[in-house]
């Protein structure tokens, strides 16, 4: 047990300081913006300090553990702790949220509420990644829904109410399965219900019941990840949300589903996961092809990037389904890699829209001439997204490939078609991304009619470079991220699948 409550402070601080936003002056957004950004930076520095000086990197066990009794009647505990699996997503959350608040600089309408919701999301996301109690995990999962709904419905585009309603219906529907699973596990087989991860990880269940629990949790995480055909909410939500909200959605929210699959489905139900993993491989391969080919047909710029996100999630599903050290490490690396790249692409799409007020690709053209900086950054992140060697996307997808090929669980006849489908997906990815760049930046359509567009300012340039450096850094030295999770991954697989 840790004596100083670092994790509790890290989880509670954003929403606590967010409450003080409503006491700041009404007029002028400058104070609100600077206050929010300073609080995000403070939170990120505190997190980094706690992890650097109080976390043993080579220890796969749960660290910085905190356990406080919350509701005695239900034996409900405020139980937090982190390991190599959660440390990457927590640091990613801090980094992307800080940059998203900087990206939200142009938001002026109801600025106090907007920035409070951003900070509330921050608390919910870090709380989810550090929860060691299943009911607390569920509460943090639900805490996300209201801020996202309000951010989309109040600061979105023309169809914002439709998109926000679709989002809440799908994700709340998934949450019902999550709650049923949490209650089922907590109440099963003992007079005293427990929701402690450590105790639940040692339990065994009858096979039929384990399969039932696995399916329930899987449906909840499949909506958030998203896995086809439960992805329908994503393109609409991304298409209408403000780009700072899109950064949080693409960078962090989708990763909560992947984290849940590893943390709950793999750790608590290893035998069911072993049975379902071949189907996960098939679904992942289908998702890569389907989303990549659908992306190619999208006229809306943000929807094209949204479908590319769905396609890249397919690699995470295959990595989780491969049941190998390499495949699971590749999936966790893809979580971090896509968190950076997806957030950057949505940010650049939003800044481009702010300047030209066009969202359909066939109406654009020639933007590269008046906006060379945006053109350079957009091209760089598109190359990272299509897995150019030297960038983080390439390393993550390559490791997932090797994880699948070296998996002892599958026959060669199973591996070959899935590898072939993944390879086709990797060919389709450059097609839709390069055609997007061609339609936006080349030719003379907009440039011929009006060329007084402003190029990227210092704020946008700083933000893009801040995301590009880790993408390049991970691509050049992936061990920086892999070293976080490699010990924990070995423990998960050895405890569960190779007993």
Description:
- By secondary structure, the chain is mainly alpha-helical.
- It has helices at 6-19, 30-54, 84-103, 111-130, 134-143, 145-155, 160-187, 197-200, 207-224, 233-240, 243-268, 270-296, 301-321, 325-356, 372-385, 392-405, 412-441, 445-449, 458-476, 479-496, and strands at residues 63-71, 76-82.
- Helix 11 (243-268) packs antiparallel against helix 14 and helix 15 packs antiparallel against helix 17 (412-441).
- The protein has 20 helices and two strands.
- The chain has a two-stranded antiparallel sheet.
- The model has no long low-confidence stretch (mean pLDDT 88).
What descriptive keywords fit this protein?
mainly alpha, globular, 73% helix, 20 helices, two-stranded antiparallel sheet, 499 residues, single chain
Largest beta sheet, briefly? 2 strands, antiparallel
Beta-strand content bin: under 5%
User: What is Rg?
Assistant: 22 Å
Number of helices: 20
Helicity range of the residues?
A: over 70%
For the secondary structure, the number of strands is 2
Poorly predicted runs: none
Strand arrangement in the largest pleated sheet: 1-2
Global mean pLDDT: 88
Name the helix and strand elements from N-terminus to C-terminus, one letter apiece: HHEEHHHHHHHHHHHHHHHHHH
Spatial separation of the terminal alpha carbons? 29 Å
Q: Any idea what the shape is?
A: globular
| Class of secondary structure makeup | mainly alpha
Brief summary of the model shown:
This protein has 499 residues and is mainly alpha-helical. The chain is built from 20 helices and two strands. The mean pLDDT is 88.
